[in-house]
Amino acid sequence: MLNALRGAGAAPIVAVVSPTSGDVRAVCGPDIRYAVQDEPRGTGDAVLAARSVLQNFGGSVLLLYGDLPLLRAETLRRLIDTHRAAGGTLSLLTATVADSFGWGRIVRRDGEMLRIVEQRDASADEQAIREVNVGVYCVSAPRLFEWLGRVTPHNAQGEIYLTDIVACAVADGVAVAHVPVDPVEVGQINSRGELAAMEKTLRTQITAKWMAEGVTFEDPDTAYIGADVTIGADTVIGPNVQLRGATTIGNACRLDGSAFIVDSRIGDRTHVRFGVVMTETEIGEGCQIGPFANLRAKTRLGNEVHIGDFVETKNARLGDRTKANHLAYLGDAEIGREVNVGAGTITCNYDGFRKYQTVIGNRVQIGSDTTLVAPIRIGDDAYVATATTVRADVPAGGVLVFNPRAQQERAGWVAKFRARQTGAAKPDRGRTQPKKKPSAERRRSASGTAQRAKKKRAR
């Protein structure tokens, strides 16, 4: 609803709240002004609580209840335009409903609006009226507070009704303008059941909007797409996907299903496989994520990165084309391009008091079941062998092999290994033919000769 008000150009926005309204303030945010109604003495009294916040304001005020989540900015702009065209004094939205029970009825004479009567105060004839007040007004601020000063709590609830300003305006010879609206758009929430029904209606509207813009939903009924989410064209969203907060999905992405994504940005052509959880994450283009991956806050992935099954990241940055395909934890890590992280690799980033960073260069190979004890740095093009515990920095181009007692390094090993694998190793110029191994007979003969010489020396 706040987005609808902003879209209609309303400023400032004032929320009237109770003295214990921490949750409401947390949701509305810091750009909203607040007025406190000390006791719940009716809707008119709530508006009066905002008078000090709107002191010296001479324009018109939009008044509306806080439980109208489907209200659109376009409807508010239509009300404002009608209000200005009618002289800018008092205008409101009305709806015609099949069952008017619980609504304030619009009472007219010869087509002109006379007053609004609430359910508890309505006569039998008035209760049969189907045109109702939906609680959205546009009123000249000076006249608003003047009329509220004349309203008394002489009604069934002993409250100051905001609706009574209509009778005050008519008494002053002011014609009240109205704009009809679809009742669905101004449905109110008075129970948990109505809240659930409203949520379902809102989700249906949101998915219909994105399908009209080129997004495919395999099962729209099970998709939960937040109001602030944006989705690119040609993206396919599977069943049971939840996109919440300020999440942005790029073009031609695929989300297989059962994903839970909050406040994250996903680049074009990225494939999010089944069962992925993602929070405050940025993902580049052409990536493959999951299945069953957990990307926590401050994860940043470059382009064409692979994060596989049961991989967890937190405050980690991975460069282009880096892969961690299985069973890894990468926390507080800076990882370069084209790195391969083997299965079972973990960064030991926490000593019980502080977090430490692991820095891995470009084109590094991390063997399976490796433990990286931060803070450490691994240079470009290094190899870390399987089942190694890395406790000290590894130089660029070096290899670190497993040793339960000490860390072993061999400088230049990577270049020689790659040369052998690509067939680029230099020939040995010291001999033209490989040295033949001695036969078994020659080895026995040599052994016997050595034994005879030993006996001769002994004599």
Give a quick rundown of the structure:
The protein has ten helices and 37 strands. With 459 residues, the protein is an alpha/beta fold. Strand 1 (14-17), helix 2 and strand 2 form a beta-alpha-beta unit.
Short key terms for the protein model shown above:
459 residues, alpha/beta, Spore Coat Polysaccharide Biosynthesis Protein SpsA, Chain A, UDP N-Acetylglucosamine Acyltransferase, domain 1, 2 domains, 14-stranded parallel β-sheet, 12-stranded mixed β-sheet, 10 helices, 37 strands, elongated
Can you walk through the features of this model?
The chain has 459 residues and is an alpha/beta fold. The protein has two domains: 2-186, Spore Coat Polysaccharide Biosynthesis Protein SpsA, Chain A (Alpha-Beta Complex); 192-422, Hexapeptide repeat proteins (UDP N-Acetylglucosamine Acyltransferase, domain 1, 3 Solenoid). The chain has ten helices and 37 strands. The strands form five sheets. Strands 10, 11, 13, 14, 16, 17, 19, 20, 22, 23, 25, 27, 30 and 33 form a 14-stranded parallel beta sheet that branches. Residues 429-434 have low confidence and may be disordered.
Estimate the strand proportion: 25-35%
Can you tell me the number of structural domains?
2
The main sheet comes to:
14 strands, parallel
Mean pLDDT across all residues, rounded?
Answer: 90
- Shape, please? elongated
Record field, number of beta strands: 37
Distance between the termini: 111 Å
Radius of gyration: 37 Å
Helix vs. strand class: alpha/beta
Helix tally? Answer: 10
CATH architecture of the largest domain: 3 Solenoid
| Approximate helicity band | 10-25%
CATH superfamily of the largest domain: Hexapeptide repeat proteins
The name of the CATH topology of the largest domain is: UDP N-Acetylglucosamine Acyltransferase, domain 1
Please write the CATH class name of the largest domain: Mainly Beta
Low-confidence stretches: 429-434
